[in-house]
Design goal:
Low-confidence stretches: 1-35
CATH superfamily of the largest domain: DNA methylase specificity domains
Radius of gyration: 31 Å
Number of strands: 26
Distance between the termini: 8 Å
Strand content: 15-25%
Helix content: 25-40%
CATH class of the largest domain: Alpha Beta
Number of helices: 15
CATH architecture of the largest domain: Alpha-Beta Complex
Shape: elongated
Structural class: alpha+beta
């Protein structure tokens, strides 16, 4: 590790380089933004404006949308961390004089001026990917001077983004954080000798190459696990995951006769009629359209979700206007709470009991099938008994299932890739993608024998629990890679990397 300056040297450096910076309104910058740590002896602190040129991009205006000098320009949507995306480049008119001011050169660095708080200042090095391109005022351009290597400056700015230094000086307007060209230009910049800058860049590139190779491998594992999860659900819904009751009977492994899915459905329909408590005449539920359905394994039959629905508790939409969150209120299941067959109990909103009471048809008892109907449509989960007394948001449909139907099997059926694609094809889009609950009611569901349903559910849960564990390990390692990347960048601008 490099030698550190003594106390006297530190005081002298601080006195020389800690002139307070000011933002575009003349307000003093936060002390935390301009009070750097100690540096190696041959480094010095400089202001960003002292080592390069800072320029805010050209503002868009209707008068620039047409003209004789239409040129491509970059905006926030094009600038990612160390990557410029040219898939969606717009054009506007730049006069020859404006072009001189706003044209990009190779080795310019573009930073997001307006972004979400954690991404404000996100930088990328322009490598002349699109000659003759300019930039908009949602970006700040830093053009390195002769004392700083462009890749080293990019490294410092990436470190500033990841360690929150850009966040500290940013200002909020309408939910967007603004870096501010003036505030950015006054930021401190650690400046080693040029040869050391290049050694640091080389070391970072070496370490990042290894790190990205590991991250890429983890991403491939994520994709493989996603495909395996889909394959398990597909096999389960095609009768290939466990031996069917019919196969067991043929091989003599099932000595007693078994109740077929058809017999089970007939028993369910009989129970529906018996439990009918309506004042009007009992109406038979919708039946599946057999002309469009594929063949099923022996012992299975087709039904509709409505045939499995309790006759005295029909499918229903949830709470339209839930109101504000009340810590001691009634739990409310929303679209974001449902995923991979489960309800995330840690994120539940709680609403007024008075509001929840206005929606008795979606009052939860536990065991219902929940399906998302707006936005991320087709997500499903079985409502746990711990949510009895709760309710659902309007965008979540509820199907109360007869006790003779295995709710977890029905949920697996709706989660399998073929069914989610079918539900997606039935959706329509106005402001957001929406699925009608009526399409869910008449959706076809395969019914295996009850014992087979139980075995399929157990095997799916066993296999997917392993997938869940592996995905958690992969996710933890990806987070570790992010922290390691931040650590490398932090060491780069404190002189500890080489």
């Amino acid at each position: 590790m490099r030698a550190r300056p003594d106390v006297a040297e530190t005081a002298q450096v601080a006195d020389t380089n800690s002139v307070r910076g000011f933002d575009s309104q003349g307000d003093a910058l936060p002390e935390s933004a301009i009070s750097p740590n100690n540096l190696p002896t041959d480094w010095r602190w400089a202001r960003v404006r002292e080592i390069g040129d800072v320029q805010l991009g050209r503002q868009r205006a209707p008068k620039h949308q047409n003209g004789k000098n239409m040129r491509p320009y970059l905006r926030v949507a094009n600038v990612f961390e160390d990557r410029i995306d040219l898939s969606d480049v717009l054009t506007m008119n730049f006069t020859p004089r404006e072009f001189e001011t706003f044209a990009l050169r190779a080795n310019d660095i573009l930073l997001n001026e307006g972004q979400s708080l954690h991404l404000v200042g996100r930088p990328a090095l322009y490598r002349d990917e699109l000659p003759g391109v300019c930039f908009q005022n949602t970006l700040v351009r830093f053009r390195p001077g002769p004392k700083v290597d462009p890749k080293f400056a990019l490294t410092i700015f990436r470190g500033y983004m990841h360690t929150g230094k850009f966040q500290k000086i940013a200002r909020w307007t309408t939910n967007i954080a603004h870096l501010g060209a003036q505030r950015f230009s006054e930021m401190p910049f650690p400046l080693p000798p040029l040869p050391e800058q290049r050694r640091i860049v080389a070391e970072i590139e070496k370490q990042f190459t290894r790190l990205e190779a590991g991250v890429a491998a983890l991403r491939r594992v994520q994709v493989s696990l996603k495909h395996y999860r889909a394959a398990v659900l597909k096999a389960a819904c095609e009768g290939r995951l466990v031996p069917t009751e019919a196969e067991l009977a043929k091989t003599g492994k099932r000595k007693s006769a078994f109740e077929t899915g058809g017999a089970l459905l007939a028993r369910i329909l009989t129970e529906r009629r018996r439990d009918w408590k309506g004042r009007s005449k009992y109406k038979e539920p919708a039946t599946p359209d057999g002309t469009r359905l594929p063949l099923l394994p022996d012992g299975w039959t087709w039904a509709t979700a409505q045939q499995l629905n309790l006759s005295n508790r029909p499918c229903a939409y949830g709470v339209l206007q839930p109101g504000e969150h009340l810590p001691d209120g009634v739990p409310l299941v929303r679209v974001g709470d449902i995923g991979d067959g489960k309800v995330d109990l840690s994120t539940l909103k709680r609403i007024s009991p008075k509001i929840a009471a206005q929606y008795p048809r979606t009052r939860l008892h536990g065991g219902e099938l929940a399906i998302t109907l707006v936005g991320a449509i087709g997500r499903t989960a079985v409502i746990p008994e711990s949510l009895a007394g709760g309710n659902t948001a309007r965008a979540v449909g509820i199907i109360p299932l007869t006790r003779e139907a295995n709710a977890h099997w029905v949920e697996i059926w709706f989660r399998n890739p073929a069914k989610t694609a079918e539900m997606d094809s039935k959706s329509h889009e106005v402001a957001r993608k929406t699925l009608n609950l009526e399409d869910v009611r008449i959706a076809s569901v395969a019914i295996p024998p009850a014992a087979e349903q139980t075995r399929i559910v157990a095997e799916v849960e066993r296999r997917l629990s392993v997938v869940d564990e592996l995905e958690a390990v992969v996710s933890a390692n990806l987070q570790r890679a992010t922290r390691l990347r931040q650590s490398i960048l932090q060491k780069a601008f404190t002189g500890e990397l080489v």
